[in-house]
Give the backbone structure.
Amino acid sequence: MDRQPATLSLTPGLLQSVWSMASNLRRLSSWAAGLVVAALLFNAPFAHCRDFVAEPRASSPITLHFVTWKADHPRAWDEAIQRFEQVHPHIHIKREIAPHSSTAYHDLLTQKLRNRDVSLDLFFMDVIWPAEFAAAGWALPLDEYFPQNERENFLPATIASGMYRHHIYGVPSRIDSGMLYYRKDLLEKYGFLPPATWNEMVRQAQAILVGERTAHPLLRGYSGQFKQYEGLVCDMLEFVGSHNGSFLTDDGRRSNLTAPESLQAVRFVREQIIQQLATPAALTYQESESLAVFLQGNAVFHRNWPYAWGLGNDPRHSKIVGKIGVTTLPRFSEGRSTAALGGWLYGISAYSRHPDEAWAFVEFMASPEMQKHFAIHASLAPSRLALYADPEVLHANPQYKDLFPVFQTARARPRTPVYPIVSHIFQRYFSRVLAFPETDIREEAEEADRKINRFLALFRDL
């Protein structure tokens, strides 16, 4: 029997004090304060309740509403949907295209779920959302559909990302982890091997920029994701983690941004990456913008996810086809290479009237055949273990052979139902200290620590 969570007596006085504490956290938006109250109102005792009785499976036509994002490889997704509808001719998939930014996507999706939109059936969840969605009662528990023996076919980190309080709420569609792309032709021209450390990468980039100044005046040393959004958190986790730092303490109870390792890593990014190798425009880059710089031949090094390999070697999108290498992210001299765990999970709305049909779609799309399809035609790294030994997958993505250990050890961002608030503080802190060289990194980190610790203590104590 599952252990029952402790219930919470929501008195008016308690709600008022919660709102007061959340609202008084300086420089946080009103939605962030409201999310704390929402997390309490919809905490675990209500997480498995449903307001609607599932309709029985029927042969009459059914339309499933699937909130997704604009695909980088639309043909691969169009074919996948067509194949599902051929197997299930009574089910039609209606896709709603959400913003490409995970932050904007989250805002759109959670608005629908807060409104208990019964027309919404399926959605993608970023790997950091299941705790929030489960605690709020928005995502349907999938234990009866997705048994333990089937979960064992997936990379453990991808399964763990979909869990909350011993229940599973998401099925991994793929795995993402940060990796370093580089101009193989330029490194070979100047006699360099792929850099093992961040300092080595800086030296290589500076030497190449000097040598290419006349021929390629627009060339920059590095292109990454430094806009104030969730991608910035991933990028900075990799720098901080590779300096033996962390965002939270080991027990996850307190923020750790003021630790010396974390402060030194942030200072390195500001002084060496932003000010020396990139341009001020990098502070506005998400994945697509930073990748465009690289594919136009205007960056020596580029941090991105696995999907960039396919685009980089597609002449319709890239000017550097055949000139790209990929390797593990560098580390600091005393640290270890750290890659942020990314990826997307299929989730089913707790308010869907068609959960069985929705599961049929999830099961089909997460099958070995379809993950192989996406690996070959969209360069999406599979979450299924067996596909890393598939000859066709490895032929299309030879980098998987060397990068498989990275997928196995990718580091997750903090898992907490209040992660959107915590991430908002991370984003503001990192964006501010990177964009304004005159800011005192320690002072900004101390303020961020205080805010995060208040939220972590609030949720933990209740």
